[in-house]
Amino acid sequence: MAIKTISTQVFEGQKPGTSGLRKKVKEFQRSGYLENFVQAIFNTIAPCDGHTLVVGGDGRFFNREAIQVIIRMAAANGFSRLLVGQGGILSTPAASCIIRKHQARGGIILSASHNPGGPDGDFGIKFNGDNGGPAPESLTDSIYQQTLSIDHYLIEDAEDVNLDQLGAYSLAGTAIEIIDPVADYADLMASLFDFERMKALLTNGKFRMCFDAMHAVTGPYAKEIFERRLGAAEGTVINGVPLEDFGGGHPDPNQVHAHELVALLNGDNPMDFGAASDGDGDRNMVLGKGFYLNPCDSLAVMAANAQYIPGYAEGIAGIARSMPTSRAADRVAKKLGIHCYETPTGWKFFGNLLDAGKITLCGEESFGTGSDHVREKDGMWAVLFWLNLIAVRNQPLGEIVKNHWTRYGRDYFTRHDYEAVNSERAADMIERLRGQLPDLPGREFAGLCIESADDFSYTDPIDGSETCNQGVRICFDNGGRVVFRLSGTGTEGATLRVYFDQYQNDPTLLGQDPQKALATLMDAADQVAGIIEYTGREKPDVIT
Fold first, then answer.
1. Ranges of H-type helices in 409-468
2. What's the rounded Cα separation, in Å, for the pair 242 and 326?
3. How many CB atoms are located within 10 Å of the residue 436 CB?
4. Sign of the torsion formed by the C-alpha atoms of 430, 431, 434 and 436
5. Active site positions, annotated
6. pTM higher than 0.90 for the full model?
7. Residues ≥6 apart with Cβ < 8 Å to 38
8. For residues 141 and 135, is the Cβ–Cβ distance under 8 A?
């Protein structure tokens, strides 16, 4: 075995987005492409000597091959210890858990989250720091700068490590441990939630639930926690074997892509509770009997009921939400007398607030919720929180949420996604909107008058860093709000996301269909922005 110095050339477009670098698999398979980015990470965080690195991914196509490359490069760059998930598997929240527990320098997580997998699908890579959270922009900017000048990478000339066998190995002085990907994480969950009360619920012979792992990373976690530790019936977890192409499905836990689960919670004999997670295990969708739980409401209800959960029984320090997320959590924070922070989209923006102890719970409308137990959003954690809450309050999920609306009012919310839109047309639409911002207040669209309009910017209250151009916000005189944003998680064209929310506290108007309750806002949004004109679409591809 020997360290090899391999000459390379710069690849354009290796700038990490909100969740790392995501490209088509074929892009990552180009000779030197993955290696360049990994070396750029190691150059940025150097020196690596004496440090521990965590490595794992969501099991998608190219996951195993990439991990073997990373192992050999990590050894060549001087890491003293590598913790690698068995079979190359680590959910994103589990990776955060392990980084924190073992005081690692950080971790490399291989995932494109909810994007499709397979040879023609997507692949992704990101670095999480020693706090277990996504690298901040200052670090990802440095990694990107490294990719612009890199001319060589280091790699050990060695055979592949057996990823499927638990145990210890050695490579050029680097200790490599293939670890159980589930154990540390499951133990952490048991320390936060009342497993005995949840087990009583799941074994009472009356309560029926289903967890759809969508052939993604959470299958092993769900089987261990729900079926083994909590005693749920075998078969409670469906699509529980991680597959390289996610079984040909789209591992995005929403009502469109998790249609199999949605059907089980509706119809003639619906189950009591259902949930799904995404490709890397950080997102969640939770359903009750004939009831869809909006992620914005989920965060607000969690905050209002945190005292029922053992891990949060002493209260919460604060709440944070991404800007496009509805303002339901703000109302809870005000009632509790704590602060609610509004941040840009991207979990990394919660990290400083969590580390500083300013917040305990946080969430995004994009099916992500979490707490200070790790530094990532956490799909399994959210599902367990709701199961624990149902067990303690002895109420169905839908009843708990409706009681919350009665007390706080309802923030109607929906998001419309226009996927794979022509990038230039989408950018033109946003730039046109930005140019109109000073002149929009006072104008009427679809019978609604605009009160304010801006492009959201954020000053981090901990380190003072500034983040601009995070989404165009338009607020109307009826209390409604529309947000326009281009997403950074796709790999083809542009994804335009349009968010609608409006507060309602009339008890007779709390049970409307969100698409009907927000219809006037939708008309106003199209008139303001020209959505149909610029996208060429009469309707969105996905509605959540």
1. 423-436
2. 33
3. 15
4. negative
5. 113
6. yes
7. 69, 70, 73, 108, 125, 153
8. no
